[in-house]
């Protein structure tokens, strides 16, 4: 990968390489038919407790009413979680996918077969086009559109109307999907990932700058255990902008540092399946990065790690008879209704670096989160898919894992926090656990060796190398064309050029 980018940079313009750069968004809407009646009662929030204990402890400015944001998301891991926004003057209502793995705010600007409506910028008096084109590629899908600015309000968000950069999507491929109920995407990652470049201020940066809310947000995603093929979108969770809402989690919040501010990149130290350490070199878990991404449906693992996890699950669960298609995601495994035994599957733990670098903590998901109900056949069979997939672009802590936790993105203090979510519970049993601290002395002090900002750094290195090559070539040519005469004049026999080269090589 690195070698490839380097070669690519040596021979082509950087824009060629740039187009290979994709964001991890990958949504599985499921292709399965269903007549299932899912029991949502266990996921309903305890209204009595959430009204009484509201605390604004983390909102010194007093500008935010978190309670209003507790239920502002709809959707599930299969179709993504979205929030309602009002865009333009007069306002047009749109549902916007919440994606912590990219940094552009973009809305449909033209009709598409899979969406019910789009943002018509011609009807908005506050819309200004910047005239610039923009395109974004995701792991799945891509779009091209026009950059502009307009005003937006979030009915269930911080008070006020803000001016933001917005891309109107004019053409797309595999981006809007069947049965999704959103018409745009809110990239909540850092400006370094903004397209066409980091001068396009991301939505959340604008929101913080213009409303004065604290520079943090948190996410509770509550679709765990629901069939991705149910036809309606339940109340899906909350995007709390500006702070932490104590009624959305139990126990304490455990923090891990953000290694680099582009994606929400974290450092994974260890993986356990059924309490057994996979025992891979910890750098394997972070090749080429490990990120927290609400826009990716599954837990995605680098190929080696994925293979080790599947082997370990097969060993612990003693279910050899599963077809390999189940593990690769092409077939579902079905049980007679009510016969599926969660206890045959192991729990999976991810150890993250603590704020104290010599410590770690672990987040654990139960099989109910990664063996996901997809379809109900004839009311007699229940069919499940494997919620973990392999990845060529690093480890992605996607919705499969995030649904177990209340996840805080504390940009001000450069840390991501995890706590057990109040909605990660089904039929009375917890779907997630969190524990620590553990000593991290058994793992390397840096498991994410490859510098996170490798692309830009590589570009700089490549340009430097290219420059140096050109420079040496010019000197060689000069030396060939002007043979040996300077030797006599300069005494030491060292020309200006060659001393420069000596200097450059030191
Ligand atoms: C689901 O089943 C219904 C009735 O059997 C059928 O009309 C419909 O086309 C099916 N949908 C899909 C996506 O297979
Ligand atoms: C809801 O909260 C009330 C008051 O805190 C508590 O008594 C009750 O047991 C809770 N119910 C559930 C289902 O958690
Ligand atoms: C917005 O302001 C109104 C009136 O001041 C207040 O009642 C409401 O709670 C505020 N909403 C938020 C999200 O802060
Ligand atoms: C960090 O953790 C180590 C190991 O538990 C402990 O000895 C040390 O005191 C901690 N450092 C701080 C600053 O808390």
TrEMBL record:
Domain of life: Eukaryota
CC per GO annotation: endosome; plasma membrane; trans-Golgi network
Domain Peptidase A1: 81-419
Gene3D superfamilies registered for this protein in UniProt: Acid Proteases
Residues forming the catalytic site: 99, 293
Glycosylation-annotated residues: 159, 356
Coiled coil: none
Entry's localization field: Membrane
Leader sequence residues: 1-19
Alphabetically ordered keywords of this record: Aspartyl protease, Disulfide bond, Glycoprotein, Hydrolase, Membrane, Protease, Signal, Transmembrane, Transmembrane helix, Zymogen
Entry's Gene Ontology BP terms: amyloid-beta metabolic process; membrane protein ectodomain proteolysis
GO molecular function: aspartic-type endopeptidase activity
Family of the protein in this entry: Belongs to the peptidase A1 family.
Record-given protein name: Beta-secretase 2-like
């Amino acid at each position: 990968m690195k070698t490839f980018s380097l070669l690519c940079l040596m021979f082509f313009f950087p824009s060629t390489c740039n187009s290979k750069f994709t964001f991890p968004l990958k949504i599985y809407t499921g292709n399965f038919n269903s007549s299932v009646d899912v029991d949502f009662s266990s996921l309903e929030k305890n209204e009595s407790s959430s009204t009484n204990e509201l605390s604004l402890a983390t909102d010194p400015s007093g500008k935010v009413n978190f309670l209003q944001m507790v239920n502002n998301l709809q959707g599930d891991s299969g179709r993504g979680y979205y929030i309602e926004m009002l865009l333009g003057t007069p306002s047009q209502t749109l549902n916007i996918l919440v994606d912590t793995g990219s940094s552009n705010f973009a809305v449909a600007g033209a009709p598409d077969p899979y969406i019910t409506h789009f943002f018509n910028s011609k009807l908005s008096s506050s819309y200004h086009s910047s005239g610039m084109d923009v395109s974004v590629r995701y792991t799945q899908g891509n779009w091209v559109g026009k950059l502009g600015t307009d005003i937006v309000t979030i009915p269930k968000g911080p008070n006020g109307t803000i001016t933001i950069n917005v891309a109107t999507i004019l053409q797309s491929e595999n981006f809007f999907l069947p049965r999704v109920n959103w018409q745009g995407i809110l990239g909540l990652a850092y400006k370094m990932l903004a397209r066409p470049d980091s001068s396009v201020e991301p939505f959340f940066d604008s929101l913080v700058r213009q409303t004065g809310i604290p520079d943090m947000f948190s996410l509770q995603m509550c679709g765990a255990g629901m069939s991705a093929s149910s036809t309606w979108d339940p109340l899906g969770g909350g995007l709390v902008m500006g702070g932490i809402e104590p009624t959305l989690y139990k126990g304490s919040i455990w923090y891990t540092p953000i290694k680099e501010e582009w994606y929400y990149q974290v450092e994974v130290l260890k993986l356990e399946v059924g309490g057994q350490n996979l025992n891979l070199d910890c750098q394997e878990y972070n090749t080429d990065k490990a990120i927290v991404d609400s826009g990716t449906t599954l837990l995605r693992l680098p190929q080696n790690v994925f293979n080790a996890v599947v082997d370990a699950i097969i060993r612990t669960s003693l279910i050899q008879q599963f077809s390999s298609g189940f593990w690769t995601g092409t077939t579902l495994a079905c049980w007679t209704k009510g016969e599926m035994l969660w206890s045959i599957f192991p729990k999976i733990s991810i150890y993250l670096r603590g704020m104290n670098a010599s410590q770690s903590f672990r987040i654990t998901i139960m099989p109910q989160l990664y063996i996901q109900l997809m379809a109900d056949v004839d009311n007699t069979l229940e069919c499940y898919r494997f919620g973990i997939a392999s990845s060529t672009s690093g480890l992605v802590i996607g919705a499969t894992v995030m649904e177990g936790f209340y996840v805080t993105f504390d940009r001000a203090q450069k840390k991501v926090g995890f706590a057990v979510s109040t909605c990660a519970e089904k039929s009375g049993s917890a779907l997630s656990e969190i524990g620590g601290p553990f000593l991290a002395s058994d793992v390397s002090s840096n498991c994410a060796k490859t510098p996170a900002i490798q692309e830009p750094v590589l570009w700089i290195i490549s340009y430097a190398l290219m420059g140096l090559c050109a420079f040496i070539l010019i000197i060689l040519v000069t030396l060939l064309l002007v043979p040996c005469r300077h030797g006599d004049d300069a005494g030491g026999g060292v020309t200006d050029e060659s001393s420069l080269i000596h200097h450059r090589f030191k």
